[in-house]
Design brief:
The protein is an alpha+beta fold and 184 residues long. It has two helices and nine strands; from the N terminus they run βααββββββββ. The strands form two sheets. Strands 1-7-6-9-2 form a five-stranded antiparallel beta sheet, with helices on one face. Strands 3, 4, 5 and 8 form a four-stranded antiparallel beta sheet that branches. A hairpin with a 5-residue loop joins strand 6 and strand 7. Helix 1 packs antiparallel against helix 2. It starts with 11 loop residues before the first strand and ends with a strand.
């Protein structure tokens, strides 16, 4: 039986949207940031002709819109994480080998996407492939994105590389880490 791994063009699978243990903390932090951003944006854009009721209404509308977008972004990352876990769990005859895989330093491209080189070392006695979940974290350690990349046909006793790329623009300081790796 041939093992199944995450596929897709170029050997990379990128989730679209799953659960994390810090879900509620991130939602409150995101909602708080969205509130502050929304209020400052609305107050900065107020003209002298606006009444206090107009300003309050505009602020409420802007905060609602920003909070909704922030909540959707958090839910997308949570959904992506759950989907990545499901995909890795679905690999038949897979063995967890996180210690055999390393992520290099993150590099932000001109397109705003963060890339990292993933190196998988095959310690098995036959050719194997690897499915690797790479997490992208912000400076506070919060999960900003997650992707799965495959490193195909690594010869026994050798290493091979693949590039993991964030699914969207990431700003500020970004750390990359191997969350999970499965050899199959």
């Amino acid at each position: 039986m041939t093992p199944r791994g995450p596929g897709g063009p170029g050997g990379a699978w990128r989730p679209r949207g799953g659960g994390t243990s810090a879900r509620h903390r991130r939602r409150w932090a995101t909602a708080g940031a969205a509130l502050a951003l929304g209020l400052s944006a609305v107050l900065a854009g107020c003209s002298g002709d606006d009444t206090p009721a107009d300003t309050a209404s505009k602020a409420q509308s802007a905060v609602g819109s920003i909070a909704s977008e922030a909540s959707e972004a958090v839910e997308a990352v949570e959904s992506a994480t759950a989907e990545a876990q499901r995909r890795l769990d679905d690999i038949q005859d897979g063995i967890d080998v996180k210690d055999d895989v390393k992520a290099g330093p993150p590099v932000t491209g001109s397109d705003g996407r963060v890339r990292t080189e993933v190196t998988a070392r095959n310690t098995d006695d036959s050719t194997r492939s690897f499915a690797v979940q790479v997490d992208f974290r912000d400076s506070q350690g919060q999960l900003a994105d997650t992707v799965i990349v495959t490193v195909d046909h690594v010869q026994a006793g050798h290493s091979a590389t693949a590039t993991a790329r964030s699914t969207h623009d990431l700003s500020g300081e970004v750390r990359t880490e191997v969350a999970r790796a499965v050899r199959y």
